[in-house]
Amino acid sequence: MTGLVKGEPTTGTRPRAVIQASSFPPMLSAAIQTKEQHRMPNIRPALISEADILTELCLRAKAVWGYDKAFMEECRAELALSPEKITGSLVQVAEVDGRIVGVAQVSLKGDDLAELESLFVDPEIQRSGIGRALFDWAIAACIDHSVKAILIESDPGAAPFYRRMGAKDVGHVPSGSIPGRVIPQLIFDLSEI
After folding, report:
1. How do residues 104-113 score in pLDDT, each as one tens digit?
2. Strand order in the sheet with 149-153
3. 2 and 84 fall within a common domain
4. Which residues pair with 191 in a beta bridge?
């Protein structure tokens, strides 16, 4: 279905077509509506009382990469966002319609350096801009704290996201959860923005 956009001038300009998601097949229509609903998340500080909810969100998001239950249990302690982590670092949540759909945690390391400890988005709405919004918040927070670079120890599946954001590979580091496993380490140089 097409039509004029209400409030747009009708003289001297070509009217813009409005395409409603309902005019597409049901599956595509649902995907479009989901994307539209999640374009503008509210980014706000995490609350201590949300620690358990945030931990479960982190675990659900990491499981997207196909890890089995045993692997995920070994990662639980490292991924847990405890009240101490929430108060001892910079932690923000992305919220849509009152529902927490993402989380990011930054730790200031001194010497103009920070580490992006966590950035997870609910699997139901990944690839909708929530991760980018949280990464943008992390950059802004680091700039506010005079940080020059952000270190990122990434799951191999998430590393392409950070590369698209502008982070560069610097090597590999041991996993904090799985002995003998190494994961990519990247750096985001804030002097390049």
Report:
1. 999 999 889 9
2. 42-45, 90-96, 99-110, 113-121, 149-153, 182-189, 168-174
3. no
4. none
